[in-house]
Amino acid sequence: MFVRTRIVVAALYLLFVASVYVGLAYADPGWAEGGIPLLIAGLPSSILVLVAAGAMSAIPGLGRVMATEGANFLMFVVLCGGINAALILGVSKVIRWLRNSARRCIIAAITIIALVGAAQVIMPIVDRDALERSRPRDVPKDAVHVGGAMGWWQHCAYDPVRRVDDCFIWNRGGLVLEEGEFVAYDGGGPATIDQMQIAESNGSSQVIALRNGRLLIPKSREADLTRFLDWETGKRQTR
Known about the structure:
The protein has two domains: 2-133, no CATH class; 144-233, no CATH class. The mean pLDDT is 89. 52% of the residues lie in helices and 14% in strands. The protein starts with a helix and ends in a 6-residue tail after the last helix. It has helices at residues 2-23, 29-32, 36-41, 45-57, 62-66, 69-89, 91-99, 102-133, 222-233; strands at 144-146, 152-159, 164-171, 176-184, 208-209, 215-218. By secondary structure, it is of the alpha+beta class. It is elongated and about 75 Å long.
C-alpha cells in the first residue's frame, strides 16, 4: 500500500511539473519571466541541472541547442521532475527496477525521446497561441512581438504619399512607448512596403529591427539614439 502511494505521488508530481512547464506560456509574463516557477517546482534537483546547463551553454554551438523547447523540457521536466520523482519512489528501487530488465531501459529511453520531440514541435505552437491570447485590444493583428516574455509589440507601415515610415512600439500590456515617424539608423531612405518585415529579435522599446538588417528609430529622438547605437555597435569610441 505504501509503495502504491509513492507511485501515485511521484506520478502526480511529474504531471504537476509538466503542467507548470506548459502553463508558463499562459501565465502573467512578470510572474513567469525566467521560468522561476519551474525552477521552484523542480527543487532541489533544478539547482544542479541549472548549474550544469549554464556550464554546457558556454560550450560553442551548444548555446542555441540549450535554448530550444526540447532542451528545456528535457532539463526541467524529464531531468528535474524525473530525479525528484525517483527521490519520492526511492532511488535504489528505481535503479533496481531498471537493472532487472533491459527492455524497461529501452522503453524509458524511447519514451523520453518521444516526449522531448513532442515538446520541440508542440511548444512553439502553444507559445504562439498564448501570445495571441495576451495581445492587447489596441494592438493590431499584424503587430509583431519582439524580445522575451516581457518584450514589446512593434508595428510599422510605409506611407507612399509622405514617403515616411509610421511606426508604433507598445509594451507587453499595450501602453504606447513610441509612435510617429521613424527614420533609418543607416541614414538611408525609408523602408518601403517590401522591406517592412520586423524581426522578432534585436528590437527594443526604442528601436525596430527589420529582417533585412536595417534599424528604424524615432525621428524625434534621432540624434540621441544614433549616438547610442554608434556606441553600441562600436562605430563611436568613448573615452
